Amino acid sequence: MPEHGTWINDKAAPKELTRLEIQTECVNNAVQVRVRAYTKCIPRDCKWGWTDGQAWPGGGIRVVLVGFFGSKQFDLRAVGDRMDAYVTNALHDPTQQETVKSYVLRRE
Question: What GO MF annotations does this protein's record show (predicted)?
C-alpha cells in the first residue's frame, strides 16, 4: 500500500499531528493496517498507541483513535511522497462541535 511507512508534518503547532507510523500486511487476501499517531507536545511528542485501521478498496486508510475526552478519526491518502491527512475531532461532550483539520505530511 502506498500509505505504508513513516510520515512527517514539519509544520505542526502544539497539539497538532507531527508524525504517523503506518504498518500494512496482507493476510489471507485481506490487508491489515495499524497506525500510530504522534502530536506535538513539550518536551517531546505525545504518542497514541497502535490502533487497527481500515484500508479502503479505492485507496486510502481510515483509523479512529479513542481517548478519554473524545476521538480522532484519521482519513489518510498517499500520493507519491506526500500524504493528505484529514483529522476529525469528536469530543464526548455533546455541547462541543466536531472539528476537521487537514495536514500534508511527507514520507520520512
Answer: protein serine/threonine kinase activity
